[in-house]
Amino acid sequence: MTDPETIQALVKEVLDDTGLKLKVDRYQVEEELESRQVRVRCEVHDARTGAPQVIEGRGVGMVDAFFHGMVERYSHEFQSLKSLRFADFSIKAEVATAKAAARSDMTARVALHLLNSDNREFTFTHTSPSVSGSTMAVVIKAVEFFVNSEKAFVAVFRALAHAREQNRADSVARYTAQLATLVEATSYSEVIENIRKQELHR
Question: Which of 75, 147, 167, 183 is a Cys-bridge partner for 81, taking CB atoms 3.0 to 4.6 Å apart?
């Protein structure tokens, strides 16, 4: 199985640093304790272009609410997000990082484990003194990974089709190998079907 670092390196190469990269500016969390419903409103900006946007979501907790908000925002364009499932979510205090006498300023390591449609598990982590801030960051990191993996897959899939049309055996071999790596991230059957539909309507 291909490790996430190898996939990320290939994605960076294919997209030439044009992938999705979000930075959180501020967020608000509202929770109704009786119904256990949480509403998250997160203001972010594109780290490359500076373009701002707002992501909103609702759920039974902050993680659930923000994850659904992110998926709702991007799954219309990136179908693979719809198949993601949680395998685990954990928060671990790093006591040794505390500086205050009460140790209340210690950092926390938030880890999110996601399963794709092929039951491959991917782990994303973020560490900071803010549990809620790291929670938002780790969800964003996970969604960015799958969005950019899908973008790279589409780009390579189209390049492979063009190489085949041009009878470029060397390029066909290279793009085929790249697809074999990118497909580890998730199943792209719906993505390929969408590409074919787009080609038919050109």
Answer: 75
pLDDT in tens, 19-47: 999 999 999 999 998 888 999 999 999 99
The 10s digit of each residue's pLDDT in 113-128 is: 999 988 899 999 999 9
**How many CB atoms sit inside 10 A of residue 121's CB?**
13
Q: Can you give the length of the chain in residues?
A: 202
| Residues paired with residue 168 on neighbouring β-strands, in sequence order | none
Nearest to 146 by CA among 3, 6, 8: 8
- The pair of three-digit structure tokens given for residue 143, joined into one six-digit string: 């969604």
- Give this prediction's pTM: 0.89
DSSP annotation of 128: E
What is the maximal distance between C-alpha atoms in the chain? 69
CB neighbours of residue 23 within 10 Å = 13
Q: Which residues of 3-18 are buried (b: 16+ CB within 10 A; e: fewer)?
A: ebeebbebbeebeeee
How far apart (Å, rounded) are the C-alpha atoms in residues 85 and 58? 17
